Amino acid sequence: MINEFYKARLGGKSVIRELSEYATARGQEIGYENVFDYSLGNPSVPVADDYTKAMIRLHEESDPMDLHGYSPSLGNTAVRGIVADSLKRRFGVPYETKHIFMTSGAAGAIAHALRAVTKPGDTVLGFAPFFPEYMPYVNDTGAVLRLVPADTEHFQINFDELEKLFDDNVAAVLINSPNNPSGAVYSEATLKRLCDLMRQKQKEYGHDIFLISDEPYREIVFDGKTVPYPSAFYDNSLSCYSFSKSLSLPGERIGYVAVNPKATDADILAIIFGQISRGIGHNCPSSSVQQAVAQVIDETSDLSVYETNMNLLYDMLIRLGFTVERPGGTFYIFPKALEDDAVAFCKKALAYDLILVPADSFGAPGFFRMAYCIDTEKVKRSIGAFEKFVKEEYKG
Amino acid sequence: MINEFYKARLGGKSVIRELSEYATARGQEIGYENVFDYSLGNPSVPVADDYTKAMIRLHEESDPMDLHGYSPSLGNTAVRGIVADSLKRRFGVPYETKHIFMTSGAAGAIAHALRAVTKPGDTVLGFAPFFPEYMPYVNDTGAVLRLVPADTEHFQINFDELEKLFDDNVAAVLINSPNNPSGAVYSEATLKRLCDLMRQKQKEYGHDIFLISDEPYREIVFDGKTVPYPSAFYDNSLSCYSFSKSLSLPGERIGYVAVNPKATDADILAIIFGQISRGIGHNCPSSSVQQAVAQVIDETSDLSVYETNMNLLYDMLIRLGFTVERPGGTFYIFPKALEDDAVAFCKKALAYDLILVPADSFGAPGFFRMAYCIDTEKVKRSIGAFEKFVKEEYKG
């Protein structure tokens, strides 16, 4: 018999997917270049050239057994070492090979991190607004995701609400900075306060509480800043990374978990991830992709277009009277809708071929998300549509 | 806190891994060419040239967004269609795109198949001798693997024992033909009898019982035969495939599940697999690897060395008086040890630098496995060591 748990899910359709399908259908009518599709968080810049060169060279010159043979179950050992060195050099956390576990993107990283440090029934605390896939990521492990309501002013952490939700059952705290959907980057002050609180709670409850940090947007930051590295602030931390956004490789499914060397059981956590893999059928990302990313470990695609687009949209939104926090990174911006009901707002926008995503499913009703990983020319052309939309619907 | 369920596993070391580590260490002493390492089932022939050419061409010529962009969550749609066409053409089962779900090898395929058609507490029936990773594959879903004792004569199915174990709680039957470790290929008669019994049990218990068929060795068959295709015999069947062995790509983690078009809920099973992926962090195999295998869908590496090696070993074993069934495929042979205790037998063989795996962990005590995916020259050189071993230890 088909498993009813999964079957029951088929009814619920993702708002993002529905909007994206609408955009595609509308594009067939009027030309996709005329649809201002801000729905999907898909990188819009090509992969770094050096990655392509590395893959071609590997296929031309490597021993096929080395290139395509089984990786050890924790990932290619040399690749793990290169990742450890890079993180150590960049963020000052003394990772070694044994602390790195290669995964199928950030989704795989989070799947392993969660299973390793929670058991069914445990609470995982997350923060609104949040990436909706965190729901199945957490809940399918048997743990339960509880959401701290949003700090809707600056999209840092609402500490009053966090303290209210913290109890003895909390096994892990899941953060995402730079943040999808808000574009916010947690400040050092935010991270320090969060980690101080977590240390205090570990003491109070007498057990480990892990910080699981989802960092696919780590390399996409604006205004010349860098992202404070969460693991530098807290020993029991697991950094979950994906090369999807930094190298524009989302389809290649390549990332890792980095275990803080001072975490409880730091020396065996990667081995435990390997045990988890046996049951969930993961068994490593592609061996050739692992070897290719290792050759370009500190490179990124040309990510500058995202900042260009952000500036265009931010300036426009401010000019049109939106309440919006300036994103510190990612390729998202997260303004307040011009009416309380963001679903209604986004529906009206469709008449102007503006595809905006209401943030109800992100846990922040009244806001909407724009994913500006699209051509700058299209962003520019969308501004007229936006002005018309706001003028006719809200200032008419 | 670290999850104790996974932590508890760390003590148990795989016999195969231990032997393989011994072989490596011994190789450092006397030269690996002098260690007759029959422990690991790792393909020993290079990937098909056309695959390499396809990968290089894709990286040189494709739009990087198409090559590296997110696959739809069920796999690249065109690739799924190509897989469906190939299976339909080869085996006469009328698959369409919607019946194919791309996975990270056979491990990923089985992980999804099991979760889709069982619920925690259900029984999955397997057959000794069996691939030991079936234990975590099944048991980590919450279902329970129960093993039908081996038919130690021909390594077909012990139907008397199967009927004894069959009850209302059985949700799926897991088969593997050609078989690791026995090398046996289920005959048409075996498959027909199994499927007749399953149809009868479906009727008797009033619910679906799925056949999950693990087929990574489908293309490695001997004596000019072909493998009867299990899905052709039974509607409720899920074929789990990997390109690891046929194309020598184990590290690339690429395979699929093919849902029989006549299965219950055949049109939504792939979509359910997609739902399962959300929780286990799978989200598709590498996009470029998917596209490359699709270009060589009906090709294999030059697999003839496995048959050459099998013939050499089979003839030697028979000559030396072993009881052994002639393998129909795979790169394994599965003789009876020359004493009741196969562990003791394999231990003695180590003194002759013969690395043989006792089959206790495969559920067939008294037998041992030889993985002959090694150079033919080494197989030839091992024969002298084998003769000496048998003569000195058992006929001295």
Question: Would you give an account of this structure?
Answer:
The structure is a homodimer of 396-residue chains. Chain A contains 14 helices and twelve strands. Chain A is of the alpha/beta class and 396 residues long. Chain A has two domains: 137 residues, Alpha-Beta Complex (Aspartate Aminotransferase, domain 1), CATH 3.90.1150; 247 residues, Aspartate Aminotransferase, domain 2 (3-Layer(aba) Sandwich), CATH 3.40.640. In chain A, the strands form three sheets. Chain A has a seven-stranded mixed sheet, with helices on both faces. At the A-B interface, helix 1, helix 3, helix 4, helix 6 and helix 7 of A face helix 1, helix 3, helix 4, helix 6 and helix 7 of B.
Quick one: biggest sheet of chain A?
Answer: 7 strands, mixed
Q: Which H/E pattern describes the elements of chain A?
A: HHEHHHEHEHEHEHEEEHHHEHEEEH
User: What's the gyration radius of chain A in Å?
Assistant: 21 Å
Shape of chain A: globular
CATH class of the largest domain in chain A: Alpha Beta
CATH topology of the largest domain in chain A: Aspartate Aminotransferase, domain 2
Strand content of chain A: 5-15%
Mean pLDDT of chain A: 95
Classification by helices and strands of chain A? alpha/beta
Query: What multimeric state do the chains show?
Result: homodimer
Continuous helix count of chain A: 14
Outline the low-pLDDT stretches of chain A: none
**What name goes with the CATH superfamily of the largest domain in chain A?**
Type I PLP-dependent aspartate aminotransferase-like (Major domain)
State the largest interface. Answer: A-B, 76 and 76 residues
